[in-house]
Design brief:
single chain, 290 residues, alpha/beta, eight-stranded mixed β-sheet, 10 helices, binds adenosine-5'-triphosphate
């Protein structure tokens, strides 16, 4: 009985044993594969910092984090950052905390604005491996503006890189995540977001002196949905919805699949759609051949 008690203590104190239990319970085939995964988190604010922490606690192999901003006292209504981080860049503060939580995770931090010409190139090249292809398994978009999302969309189309987008509404009570697979699902420009579809300039929504609402609850929930989808996608368990919404006022989680648009304004997206269709047609022809 004593031996049994000791081994239970060892199991309880090892953080990985509870993650490995996912494998023993038949949820995940080979959980250890997480060690070989590289995830880029773009924007380490209210959603991205929490997503990065979750991935760190799950034991992901490598994290690339991007942000241009510094931690301010105004960020304390969110999770993750603490008052002593004020004045540090979000990337430096996040890297420090993440490495303290789990030193096994390699954290690369990039303090940059991805939307400038130089930033775009630096962002894209930071994702490249020695073979010229993307070295990351997944990009998580946790930025809060249209321009940055368009930049991630363009880089992902150019690298044929799958990514997940997240967003929280200005009134802080709803959010969404979306999975984008170049040529297969809608890209970010195939179906314009509501603000653009209705012709409103996003900048006019953010009026001077009018503060957007923000709740750590909604941001934490959206981060949780995002990382859950990322784990399912990377470790092949369950199913990943094309779009998953969260309406906290009605406790409603709508899901849908978003098909790519043949009339997408992004010509690279249209080209990838045609390549995907050709691939599908030749697979059907090969299956039908005697
Ligand atoms: P708020 O705008 O509500 O005051 P915030 O700027 O911290 O807060 P969040 O929604 O919490 O916004 O997080 C979004 C994060 O994405 C921010 O940390 C922001 O600096 C980062 N971000 C936005 N655009 C870019 C960009 N072009 N390049 C790098 N990081 C970006």
């Amino acid at each position: 009985a004593k031996v049994q008690k000791m081994s239970a203590e060892v199991v309880d104190s090892n953080p990985y044993s509870r993650l490995m239990a996912l494998q023993r319970m038949g949820i995940v085939k080979d959980y250890e594969r997480i060690r070989n995964k590289t995830v880029a988190v773009v924007g380490v604010g209210g959603v991205g910092s929490v997503a990065a922490e979750m991935l760190t606690r799950c034991g992901v192999g490598r994290l690339l984090i991007y942000d241009y901003d510094k931690v301010e006292l105004a960020n304390m209504n969110r999770l993750f950052f603490r008052p002593e981080h004020c004045g540090m860049t979000k990337t430096d503060a996040a890297r420090k905390t993440l490495q303290e939580i789990n030193p096994d995770v390699e954290v690369e931090s990039y303090t940059m604005n991805i939307t400038t010409l130089k930033g775009f190139e630096a962002f894209k090249s930071s994702l490249l491996g020695p073979d010229g292809n993307s070295r990351v398994d997944l990009i998580l978009s946790c930025v809060d503006n249209y321009e940055a999302r368009i930049t991630i969309n363009q880089v992902c189309l150019e690298l044929k890189q799958n990514w997940m987008e997240s967003g929280v509404s200005e009134d802080a009570v709803s959010g969404h995540i979306q999975t984008l697979i170049p040529g297969v699902t809608a890209c970010f420009q195939c179906v314009p977001p509501l603000v653009v579809a209705s012709g409103i300039d996003e900048r006019t929504l953010k009026r001077e002196g009018v503060c957007a609402a923000s709740l750590p609850t909604t941001m934490g929930i959206v981060a949780g949905l995002l990382v859950q989808a990322a784990l399912k996608y990377m470790l092949d368990f369950g199913s990943v919805s094309g779009y998953l919404g969260y309406n906290s006022l009605k406790d409603h989680f709508p899901t849908m699949e978003i098909k790519p648009s043949e009339a997408c304004v992004n010509s690279l997206c249209c080209q990838l759609q045609r390549e995907e269709e050709a691939r599908r047609n030749s697979a059907v022809a090969a299956a039908a051949a005697p």
